[in-house]
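SEQUENCE-TO-STRUCTURE ENTRY
===========================
What this section holds: a protein sequence and its matching fold, both as plain text.
Tokens: labelled as protein backbone structure tokens, with as many entries as the chain has residues.
Question of interest: how does this chain fold, as expressed in backbone structure tokens?
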Amino acid sequence: MPLFAAMREQQKWLALTMLAYAIGIGVTVEALAAACRRARPLLVRLTAAGAMVMVAGVYAVVAPSLVWGLGGSVRVTQYPQSWHTADEIMGDGDEAVLFLPWHLYQPFSFSGSRTVATPAAAFFRRPVLSSDAVELGPVRTNSVSRRMAYVQRLVAAGGAGAFGRLVAPLGVGYVVLARDREADLYAWLDAQDDLRRVLRTPELDVYRVEARGTGRVVAARPGGYDEAVALANRGTLGTEAVLPDGQAREPLPSTASGGIHRTSSTSWDVAPGTPGWVVIPEEWSPGWSAGGLPSAPTAAGTVAVAAGAEAATVHYEPWRWLRLGLIASVLSLLVLLVIGLLEHRKDLVRWWAVPYPEGPSPPAPPAVRGRGATAKVYRRPASPG
């Protein structure tokens, strides 16, 4: 079908097809039922009745296969024990997990080598940073994320020589490598001085990032991706914020970090500390606000805020309007429900008081004139109770 290959989840076409089937079969059965009742030729009635029996027979045959996991075609799959062990080692916290291989869809041994959406974000307790690239033929990615583009370049460059130092500004505390496939392509992880392997299993490797790069980093230097990679290779890149259009702020290199805490999916608290730049490990957007404090994107695609010595709160401003929209939608639904109940309140009272519907009174017979005529009186049966 046209555009079938462009669907990110191609089974959406199947869902639309099932809706079409449901509507089509419903309309067909209604037409057959009407033909059974109203059609005058006996042959037409018999044909319609036979068709209805055939439709019911098809469902009677197919229905048992929908029980017990679609006849065994759908089964529960357990994550390997190594995934549970990795989650116990990393625990929970604000530091993110960078999951490799860098694919949005990939096969795993526990999925029967079927290609599935990378399930790390649904499994690990920590925030997970994984690829969002669709990799559909010549279209490698449809992402507009600066963070994703930054990591993509690092992975393509084999870590660029200081992978841990370069992903630290993303708030990454751990790197997890699934060894189901392409493990050899990521052998460069073992050569990184700023990564320490804490788990090695046949299915999974876990590395701890030794470098830090978020929070009150205080200092800043101008530059982009290339400048950050060059400085990291020389060992002269610290925790300072690398700002593509920024200005240098001493001391360089910086060793400061920390002092931030995620309070929700759209807000961070910054503890009091040395005035300077604060790096928040969130996707850059002008919507991030810190009470009027200057902000800028970093080379890694995260948010940098020029904060003072006092505490501050960084939050995503558009969420307030989204929340108002959600509240307005819920209130509108409640108003519609109340209006509907008020409009049909008499019907609801009658339905509640009378357990079965009352039929209309039989029509009175026409008046009969003449000798010997008798009159009949019809009375509506009294309602129960």
Observations:
- Residues 81-209 form one domain.
